[in-house]
Design brief:
Chain lengths: 85, 85
């Protein structure tokens, strides 16, 4: 069993209104040290396979075909082993 | 300057419909090895301070006051130094 921790970020230059609004809210709450907030999405995908390179191939395909929008997103992931249950 | 990478997860037992739907979509696309998908939210907050323990205190407060909903969320974060710009 593997778990892939996949992070889907916005590409540089793509507007991040949620980040902007979060920053504004933090300022209103008195967090004056905050100079930037970027948001991203995180998926933990559990895979029932014994083969790490197979898991890696699958995760790469998932990102390309479903999880990330190639126009606005870039993705990165870590794959870790977990005890099967 | 510090960047805090903050991850806001759903507490165990809280429904994650986005994760469930993502899993269904992955199955429909032929990813039969997937046995679970959990989603979470990620904030990268850049702080203009020189004091790491101050940064840590601020981030803890941000999570409690704005970023996480204590009823359904748990949070974790890493703080790393970046070259000021």
């Amino acid at each position: 069993m593997f778990i892939a921790d996949i992070r889907i970020k916005l590409k540089k230059g793509v507007a991040d209104p949620e980040g902007k609004n979060t920053m504004k809210a933090l300022e209103l709450l008195g967090f004056y040290e905050v100079v930037a907030v970027d948001t991203s999405k995180f998926f933990s995908v559990k895979l029932d396979t014994q083969d790490e390179s197979e898991a890696r191939t699958q995760v790469e395909k998932m990102c390309q075909n479903l999880l990330a929008n190639p126009v606005i997103n870039e993705y990165s992931y870590d794959i870790r082993t977990v005890e099967g249950a």
